[in-house]
Amino acid sequence: MNQLKPETAGRLATTAVPNTTANSSAADTLAHVQAFSDTYETIDYIYVLDNTRLVGVVSLHELLIAKPNAVIADIMIKNVAYVHQNTDQENVAHLALA
Which one in 65, 74, 78, 85 has a CA-CA gap of 20 to 30 Å to 8? Predict the structure, then answer.
């Protein structure tokens, strides 16, 4: 991320966050989050990826109350707002406040 321009979203972002796939179970995802919890900067949301593409998020709360065999695709939020890493941080702030 050091190659990103100053004042861009990517310079402010962290990649040290938990992720999973849409076809994973809640139990498997929770076990993965617990196993790697010391490597994450934050654990408010688990990011659901299809390869490197964001397809949804699931909150830690929703993961904890889900049935162990629940499929992540069924409990995740699918319409996720996002910006690209080169987006100016001022534009990100405006989007967040809109």
Answer: 78
